[in-house]
Structures are given as structure tokens and as C-alpha cells.
Design goal:
The chain has four domains: about 20-40 and about 105-310 and about 430-490, no CATH class; about 325-380, no CATH class; about 515-610; about 625-760, Galactose-binding domain-like (Jelly Rolls), CATH 2.60.120.260. The strands form six sheets. Strands 11, 12, 13, 15, 16, 17, 18 and 20 form an eight-stranded antiparallel sheet that branches. The longest helix has about 30 residues, at about 220-250. Strand 2 and strand 3 form a beta hairpin. The chain has 28 helices and 20 strands. By secondary structure, it is of the alpha+beta class. It is globular, with a radius of gyration of 31 Å.
Length: about 750
């Protein structure tokens, strides 16, 4: 390499080998002493790293894309739980062979974690070399991308660290444009597929960058068609995964709300906020809240890019047409006026002015600020240097412009400064017109990884264009590389012991395991990790989405009710493990011991174990009977609310659940009835906490058919149909005309909702 690395003769003939060795060594130093404890520590924290460890284990033990694989190992027995988060199949290309060769899930995770650093750096090195044909410039690109501060903010997110295919894809595009060889299109296609298998976010965002690349560089339809075909081919290859995600998310009713998406956009301050882990820049971590908003790319790479921008401006521009000059002056004055109006709102608040019949009303600052930004951008685009860059298809200009656009996209649909909106309808708001961005993407701020990629390429190009002597260039390269490394260097990495495994109860056959308490600190992550050791399905879970049944199960325990566990023990006994350290007052033990069909199995020095036998199966042969009328006490209930097949129309108690609230259903004549099904729609927290169900042939003599908590029925209903949660209760083949539901207990906060009701029989 030109920066003076001393290497054996064999390595000197292969600069990429030297780069790979250097990046690997740097990753080991950055995370040291992780390399010495690959089998026994968890880097960063006991949250997402354990989730990734568990998913990598599952990918190695279940055939991908099968129904069993999609149903996963956590949130048992829910359907499609692997689609609640990224599947991590891309990094499993490394982790699975390691586990097949005998490595533990944790060892495989740690090796993959370390490998993402040199892989990302080497991919960017290839891009930098493609753009400049210099290995010193390529090293600046590789180091800036592979070891940048944004990656440090996401050390716990393996799927976000695995961003190595994007720079390879860009390098392939540039090489295809240069050589028109089919192999580069093939490599680009493979890069898209690999990136899609590693991180869905990055693939979607990378398509945006590829679109910008096409607009800037491609001038003939054949090239455009070839690249578009490659993109389409990658989508086809990944379509089974895409369609499965859509099917599973639709089944569970998962959506991303506009407010949720806006809250995960970057703030302007995010670009100068780094992770508290950073050795040099950790003090910036308090500028804004949350790791998703720690988007500082590093000072050195920014300085290099700015140097390139200044050098570009110092070039002698072509002569300016007078017409364009006059247009620019008019637009510049308009932009200054809009900016002044925006600042006036900041200074004075809402104001208005009337001139004759015209009235100017200023109610915010972000709309005039948006107009000002747009006009300033147009003015810049009309400058001779900008038009020259466009006509020349300047690579440096493209990556500088891409850096700016991608940064703007990272700010989401409502860009802000100190939480105050500063722009109106930015580019990300346009992307949200596409269903995948409006519903499937939660964190626009992750565009920052692509911002760093574009910035790293710009820095390499800027360095390449330095008009200095060889010695000066070498000195600048060494200083720049040291600066980039220091920008991304971290304080000693937290290396934590993995959660210890409890002793499996002997002589007790069981299926699913649930650890209590649910959702406390990192308890659910630990439960999933222990699942990789004992090999049983785990009812606990943590992911990007929380299924309705799990929220309902947590609610039942909050109410002091263990009947929700019934839904988890459907075909095999359930093993319940209670952590006594987090149940000092014995509340959980008391709740579980009150459950039906529960057996205490024993204890160790930390855990107490219970077995829960499956509940009896409900059998009912018959069809849905017509309901003639319904009443709440003596007040008629609009029957259409209960039988129209629309869960959005529902009967609700006017206040919270009260003892003796009741609904009576009249079939019009006697029937043999075997089951009562009551839907609470998607409002799982409005289920009746304690219900007494009776039947009567004449309205005088009543027979009890069901009495007690419906928590287990609610959790079971949420498992079967999360978007229309049915509580199914036995009526034991009674002969009845009337079915009555009466609350046996009240609740201080929950109302009682009935969205639909069905009585089966014949």
C-alpha cells in the first residue's frame, strides 16, 4: 500500500489481503479483549446481542423458509414469530457453518460480530479503490465506513453492523459503467441479495441510493435496463421472504404509525451526537436522546469531504449565461426573504400583515424554511460549477450531493431541531407514499449508514484529488487514517457473562417453557438465550413487534391472574420457571400456585419450577345459531352491534367493569348449545376479568356452564386471531333458549367490550 505498510513479499502483491489483515487486526484491538473470550462473554449488553445469538442458533437448527422456521423459537406458541424481527439469514451464512462445526451459539455470534468490522471496511475499500485506483484513498474509504462512530452506536444491533454488501454493490455498478461486463451486474445482484438477507432496512434504503446513482450516472437505456433487471432479480430472489413477512404481519395486524415513524427520525443535532461509548466524542452523547439519534459520522471524514468541496469550488467555472445569472439573483433574493420570514416566527411567534386585499399569515417556521431551502438548492444548482458537475457526471459531486440527500432522508417525515419541526414535507414524506415505507419501516434515522457510505466515498475522492507531493500525500494519509480511527475508537467494551442456565427438572416431560417475570429488564432476552441451551420453545420474547397475546399475558399477570398460562399449554405440559431474585415478596409464586392443574416440581438456588398440565379440550359440533335479541339487564342492546361481522362496531359498558354487569342473549326458542364465542375485537385489555355464564330453557331455571377468569381464553383467542380476539366458552350441550353473561368481579380501569358474539349448536 502507498502509505508505507511493511508487508511480506506475498502480501505486497495483494494489497487487498494487506487491507483485510489490517482491518481485522484493528477490529480485534477495538474490541479487545473480546477475542480472548469468544466462548464466554456477551459484548455490549444483554439485550439485542442475545436476541441475535438466539436467531443465529435457530437459523442453524431449522430449515430456513419452512413453516417451522417461520414459527420460530420464541413467543411460543404464536405463529410466524421469526418475522417479528430481522431474520439475519445473511450473517447466518457465517454463523451456521460455525455451529455445524461445533461452535456454540454465543461463539458464533461473537465471531460474526467481529467479522462485520473488516467485512464492511473491506467492502468500502473496494469501492474506494474502484473510484480512485489508489489504495491509500481506498483505506480512507474503508476505515471511514467500517469503523465509523455511527456503527459504534449500534454495537448491539448485529443486523445493522452487517452493512458490507452495499459498498460492494456500488463498486460493481461503477465497474459495470466503466467496462460493460456482465460479471459486474452479477456481483451487484448478489450484493443486493446478501444485503437483503442481512438487513431489510439497508436494502430498502440502498435502493434509494441506487436510484440516485442511476439518475446521475446513466445516460443510455441499455445500462439502465441492465441495472433495473438486476434490482428486479434480487427482489424476485427475496420475494418468498418479503411475502412471508407481509402475510405474517397482516395476520398479527402489525403496523407502524406515522407518529412512531416521526419519532425515530433524526434531529439536526443528531449529526453532532455520538455514542457515549466513543473515547474522543462520547461527551456529545447527551446532545439528543437515544442511540437511534447518535449519527455523528466522525470529524476527520467530514473535514476531508469539505476539503474536496472547497477544491471543487476553486476550480475555474465555465462562463455564466446572463439569463441564468439573473434568474439566480431573483431566486436568491426570494430564498433570503423566505428564510427571514422563518426566522421572524422563531423570534416573534405567529404574526400577520395585510397589504390591501392581500394578507400574509405566518403560523409556523418550517414551511417558509422549506421554501428557503428549496430556493437555495435551485440557486446552487444553477451555478456554473454545479451545472458543470452535472454535465461531467462528477463522481465527487454525486457523493457529496448523496451525502446531503441521505442526511435529509435520515431526518424522517418531520425533520426537527431540538424537537421543533424545521421542514415541511421533506423527501422522506414522499417515500411514505410507498406502502413499505409507510407501514414497514420504523426508523428513518438508519439512513445514516448510507450517509456514512456516501461521505466515505466523497472523502476518498477528495483525498485522491489533492494536488500535493508524494511525501505530503503520504503524511496526509497517515494523519487522516489516524484521525478516522480515533473518531471511531471506543472506551473498553463491556464484556458481560451470559445468563446462567438453570437445572432442568428431571422426570418431567414438557413442551414450552415460560420464565417469570415477563418483560423485566433483560429477562426475556435471557429466556430466549437459555432456549438455545435447553432446546425447548420459549413463551418469552423480545422483538421489533409485540404480539397481542403476549401483551395480554402480561396484563393477566399484572391483574394477579395465572390463567393466561392455560393458552401456552395446549398439547404438552408447560414448564414455568420463576426467578426468586425478582419475586422477593412471593407474589408470582402465589399467583401460579392458585392456577388449576399446576404442580410444584422443585427449586434450585435461584429458580422455582412448576408444571402446568394442558387444559381440557373444548369440542363443539354445530353451527352458529341466529340470535333473536340481546339485553343489558332490562335494557335492550342493539343486536347489530354484536352480529354484523364488523369488529369496529361494538357494545361497551358506559363505565369500567362492575360486578353484576350482564348481557343476556335470546335465541327465540330452545336449541342444543355447545359453545359461546365472544369477540373483544383487537381491544384485548377490555376482556371480562371474571365471568359467570349460565343457560336457561325458560328464563327461570338457570344452569352454570362457565365460571371464572377468561384470561386464558383471551390469550388463546389472541394467538388464534390477533385482529379479532375470540373468547370461547363451553356450554356443555345444554338445551337452552337463553344464554347469560354476568361479571363476577369489577375492574378499576377496564371497560367491557363485546364486538361480536356467536352461539354454536343445533
Amino acid at each position: 500500500m502507498r502509505i508505507g505498510v511493511v508487508a511480506p513479499p506475498v502480501l505486497r502483491r495483494s494489497p487487498f489481503v494487506v487491507a483485510a489483515v489490517a482491518y481485522t487486526g484493528l477490529a480485534i484491538l477495538l474490541t479487545f479483549p473480546l477475542i480472548l473470550h469468544l466462548t464466554s462473554v456477551v459484548p455490549s449488553d444483554l439485550g439485542d446481542p442475545l436476541l441475535s445469538t438466539s436467531i443465529l442458533w435457530w437459523n442453524a437448527h431449522a430449515l430456513p423458509l419452512t413453516e417451522r422456521w417461520w414459527n420460530g423459537f420464541a413467543f411460543a406458541p404464536a405463529h410466524g414469530t421469526l418475522a417479528f424481527s430481522d431474520h439475519r439469514l445473511g450473517v447466518s451464512l457465517i454463523a451456521t457453518p460455525l455451529q455445524w462445526l461445533g461452535a456454540s451459539p454465543l461463539t458464533a455470534y461473537n465471531i460474526v460480530f467481529l467479522a462485520t468490522f473488516p467485512l464492511c471496511a473491506l467492502g468500502a475499500h473496494a469501492l474506494g479503490y474502484t473510484l480512485t485506483r489508489r489504495h491509500d484513498a481506498a483505506a480512507i474509504c474503508g476505515l471511514s465506513y467500517g469503523f465509523n462512530p455511527f456503527r459504534i452506536s449500534h454495537l448491539s444491533h448485529l443486523e445493522l453492523l452487517a452493512a458490507f454488501a452495499m459498498p460492494v454493490g456500488l463498486a460493481a455498478l461503477h465497474l459495470f459503467l466503466r467496462e460493460r461486463r456482465a460479471k459486474w451486474i452479477a456481483i451487484f445482484t448478489v450484493a443486493l441479495v446478501v444485503q437483503g438477507l442481512c438487513a431489510t432496512y439497508y436494502l430498502l434504503f440502498f435502493f434509494v441510493l441506487v436510484g440516485l446513482w442511476l439518475l446521475w450516472f446513466v445516460r443510455d437505456w441499455r445500462t439502465f435496463a441492465s441495472i433495473a433487471a438486476a434490482c428486479a432479480a434480487s427482489v424476485v430472489v427475496l420475494s418468498p421472504i418479503v411475502f412471508a413477512y407481509r402475510r405474517i404481519h397482516a395476520f398479527h395486524g402489525f403496523i407502524r404509525t406515522p407518529g412512531e415513524i416521526s419519532s425515530f427520525g433524526a434531529d439536526v443535532v443528531s449529526f453532532v451526537t455520538g455514542s457515549p461509548r466513543l473515547l474522543l466524542w462520547g461527551f456529545t452523547g447527551h446532545f439528543t436522546a437515544g442511540q437511534e439519534r447518535e449519527m455523528f459520522p466522525g470529524l476527520t471524514v467530514v473535514v476531508l469531504a469539505v476539503v474536496g468541496l472547497i477544491a471543487a469550488f476553486r476550480r475555474r467555472p465555465p462562463a455564466t449565461d446572463t439569463r441564468w445569472r439573473r434568474t439566480s439573483i431573483v431566486l436568491l433574493l426570494a430564498a433570503i426573504l423566505a428564510a427571514t420570514v422563518s426566522l421572524s416566527f422563531v423570534a416573534f411567534g405567529r404574526w400577520s400583515i395585510s397589504i390591501g386585499s392581500l394578507r400574509l399569515l405566518v403560523t409556523d417556521n418550517y414551511k417558509p424554511a422549506s421554501i428557503a431551502l428549496l430556493l437555495f438548492t435551485i440557486v446552487f444548482g444553477l451555478r456554473p460549477i454545479a451545472r458543470s458537475a452535472w454535465l461531467r457526471r462528477s463522481t465527487l459531486a454525486f457523493y457529496l450531493i448523496a451525502t446531503a440527500l441521505l442526511s435529509l432522508l435520515a431526518m424522517g417525515p418531520d425533520p426537527s431541531l431540538f424537537e421543533a419541526q424545521v421542514l415541511y414535507k421533506p423527501p422522506y414524506a414522499w417515500l411514505m407514499a410507498l406502502p413499505v415505507f409507510s407501514n414497514g419501516v420504523r426508523v428513518p434515522a438508519r439512513f445514516a449508514m448510507l450517509t456514512v457510505l456516501a461521505l466515505a466515498a466523497a472523502a476518498a475522492l477528495a483525498f485522491d484529488r489533492l494536488n500535493v507531493s508524494v511525501r505530503t500525500r503520504r503524511t496526509i494519509a497517515i494523519v487522516a487514517l489516524m484521525g478516522i480511527a480515533l473518531d471511531g475508537w471506543i472506551k473498553p467494551l463491556d464484556l458481560l457473562p451470559p445468563p446462567p442456565m438453570w437445572q432442568l427438572p428431571t422426570k418431567y416431560a414438557f413442551g414450552t417453557v415460560v420464565e417469570l417475570p415477563l418483560g423485566t429488564d433483560f429477562a426475556d432476552f435471557a429466556a430466549m438465550y437459555r432456549g438455545t441451551i435447553h432446546g425447548h420453545p420459549v413463551a418469552n420474547g423480545e422483538s421489533g413487534y409485540l404480539p397481542a397475546h403476549y401483551a395480554g399475558l402480561q396484563l393477566a399477570f399484572d391483574d394477579g391472574n395465572a390463567r393466561g398460562l392455560d393458552a401456552l399449554a395446549q398439547s404438552e405440559p408447560l414448564l414455568v420457571a420463576i426467578d426468586r431474585r425478582t419475586d422477593a415478596n412471593g407474589r408470582l409464586h402465589h399467583i401460579v400456585e392458585q392456577a388449576e392443574r399446576v404442580t410444584k416440581l422443585g427449586s434450585d438456588n435461584r429458580w422455582t419450577f412448576y408444571g402446568l398440565a394442558p387444559p381440557p379440550r373444548l369440542t363443539c359440533s354445530g353451527h352458529d345459531l341466529a340470535i333473536a335479541s340481546a339485553a343489558n339487564g332490562g335494557t335492550p342492546v342493539d343486536l347489530s352491534l354484536l352480529t354484523d361481522g364488523n369488529i369496529d362496531t361494538a357494545w361497551r359498558t358506559p363505565t369500567t367493569q362492575q360486578f353484576d354487569d350482564m348481557v343476556q342473549l335470546d335465541l327465540g326458542r330452545e336449541f342444543r348449545v355447545c359453545a359461546l364465542r365472544v369477540s373483544v375485537g383487537m381491544v384485548w385489555d377490555s376482556y371480562p376479568r371474571d365471568l359467570d355464564v349460565t343457560t336457561s330453557p325458560d328464563g327461570v331455571t338457570w344452569t352454570r356452564q362457565f365460571k371464572g377468569s377468561t384470561a386464558g381464553l383471551m390469550v388463546r383467542g389472541a394467538l388464534d386471531d390477533p385482529k379479532n380476539i375470540w373468547l370461547t366458552m363451553p356450554l356443555h350441550d345444554a338445551t337452552a333458549r337463553y344464554v347469560r353473561m354476568r361479571l363476577d368481579a369489577g375492574h378499576p380501569t377496564a371497560i367491557w367490550t363485546i364486538a361480536e358474539v356467536r352461539i354454536s349448536g343445533g
